[in-house]
Amino acid sequence: MSEIGWDNRASSYVCGKNVWFNFCNDGIGSNCTGYGRVNSGAGHIFNYAIRYLDNHMSSAILGPYDARDIGAITIFEDHDCSGASARFYWDPDSGINGTFYSREDMEYAGLRNDSFNSMVVPKGYLVELYEHSGFYGKMQ
User: Fold this and answer.
1) Distance between CA atoms of 19 and 67, rounded to whole angstroms?
2) pLDDT of 35-68, one tens digit each?
3) Sequence-separated (6 or more) residues with CB below 8 Å from residue 24
4) Residue 140 and residue 131: Cα distance in Å, rounded?
């Protein structure tokens, strides 16, 4: 992003419906995983305040996305689809029970434990949330 004058300057973003993205706080070729290092998502997203990566994004990786092929939810730390975000794909090989993600998966994707407050879900998809690791506890 430094080549176009946007290194460590972004505070918000809008992304189109056919794009997945990773915004990283380190340069190209870095390890773009884990909390404080990546903001990711897929589909049409308006994030008006990226919070913890505010003015710290130094690279962007973009790719094609079509929820009709393989959908992804985007989870946000803040209640209004803002703040830290992370993308989680449906796995078509997961079978009838669906795709499962653990707390460790969420942290690797860039979210802190117990920081989930809002999400974007593609049309036709269903999300089940559990209170504890191991997919048990009160389901939402």
Assistant:
1) 10
2) 778 889 999 999 998 877 777 777 888 999 999 9
3) 30, 32, 37, 38, 57, 58, 59, 60, 61
4) 8
In angstroms, the CA 11 to CA 37 distance is 15
| Phi, psi for 2 (deg, rounded to 5) | -65, -30
Residues in the chain: 140
Structure tokens at 88: 């989680």
- What is this structure's pTM? 0.84
Whether 88 and 56 have beta carbons less than 8 Å apart is answered as no
76: CB partners within 8 A, 6+ apart: 47, 82, 83, 84, 85, 116, 117, 118, 119, 120
Q: What number of other Cβ atoms are within 10 A of residue 122's Cβ?
A: 19
3-state secondary structure of 114: coil
How far apart are alpha carbons 48 and 130 in whole angstroms?
28
Residues 126-138: b if buried by 16+ CB within 10 A, e if exposed:
eeeeeeeeeeeee
Residues 87, 110: Cα–Cα separation, whole Å: 9
